[in-house]
Predict the 3D structure of the following.
Amino acid sequence: MLITAPAAQLLAGYRPEETRCSYCKTPLQEGDPVTAYAVRYAGDETWSVPRLYCRTCRPATVSDPTLGATELLAEARLGCTMDAATQTSSLTLLGIERVVRSDPEDGRATL
C-alpha cells in the first residue's frame, strides 16, 4: 500500500540525531530556526535527515542533486517534544514552513 503525504507532514516531529550545524558546527537548541536536509533513496521506504543547518549557513537549494534520490530542504525550527508515558523529551523539527524539493531524475550520476 502506497501512502503519500506532503513533505512538511512527513518531517514534522522528526528527531534529528545531530543537533549541530553541519557546516559551522554551531550547537543548535530549542527555538532555533534550522534548515533540514532530508533524503530518501530509490527503493527505500524511510527518510533520513543527515544534516541540519543554522540560519547563517542554510543553503537555498539542493545545489548538486543525487541521481535516484528524492532530496528536500525544509525550513523549520527545533522544538521540544514531550512523551508523558516515558517522561522523556527530545528536540524535533516543528513549524515547517518551506520545502525545496529535488526529484530522483534531477540528479547526476557519480562515478
Summary: Residues 15-106 form one domain.
